Amino acid sequence: MSRTRLVSILLALFATALVAGCGSDDSSSDESTGTATASVTAADCTPENLGTFKDGVLTVGTDSPAYPPYFEDDDPTNGKGFESAVAYAVAEQLGFSRSEVEWTTVPFNSSYAPGPKKFDFDVNQISITPAREKVVDFSKPYYTASQGVLVAKGSDLEGITSLDELKDAEIGVQIGTTSLEAVSDEIDPSTEPKVFDNSNDVVAALKAGQVDAVVVDLPQAIYLRDAIVPGSSVVGQFEAPGGDEWGALLAKDSDLTQCVDLAVQTLTDDGTLEEITTQWMSDAASAPELN
What we know:
This protein is an alpha/beta fold.
């Protein structure tokens, strides 16, 4: 065999090996980032197939105290409140009865810290962010925050039912937020919204009567109403792109992640999640939808 022929064969073999190696890497990447529905089925996601923190028990974490409308009576076990109801609905999808669900206290900042977890998943209004995804897993979002409209006590805007009724209002909002974009795109007020540098200034403006209403993420609006601005009310909520997304949090590369993911997707597809959201994040939270 000539030297030229030998070199040609070796180059061809090297090229083939290189392509095969690249193909293997792509396949592995696809598997690791693929959706749960593509790799697991409901039959895979049953108690006997899941390596839970405790055998035969689903351990769910959240912080304490646990506040409405996410939990009621500071008791996650009662199934009342948005995230309590979501957790039990996920548990049911995984084949666990109410009596087979145990709750454990997990401080908010500890939930997404790196390292092993003493729970199977955690629900605690935890936003899905790229930084957190580096050290923990998240399910598909079980909630995407709407925008909430907060008004002071005695406001003429109390009792409104539509976004059109906010057209002539003086609206306060924080600069650089999705709320500012939502006001411009969804309400399109007749006067430019008043823009403030931070959330404290937004709240101060509402208290001082400098604005008729403020628009913030709904969970923040509920918190401001209940803890910061006495007598205020959330007159409504509306959907807008870019809202904060919450997911069930699991340990990084948890064996349960894809099954919890599938459970959330199933609850989304069959309308259960929408019903829970309406019940607890609209009706019980006294934050009606604005049409």
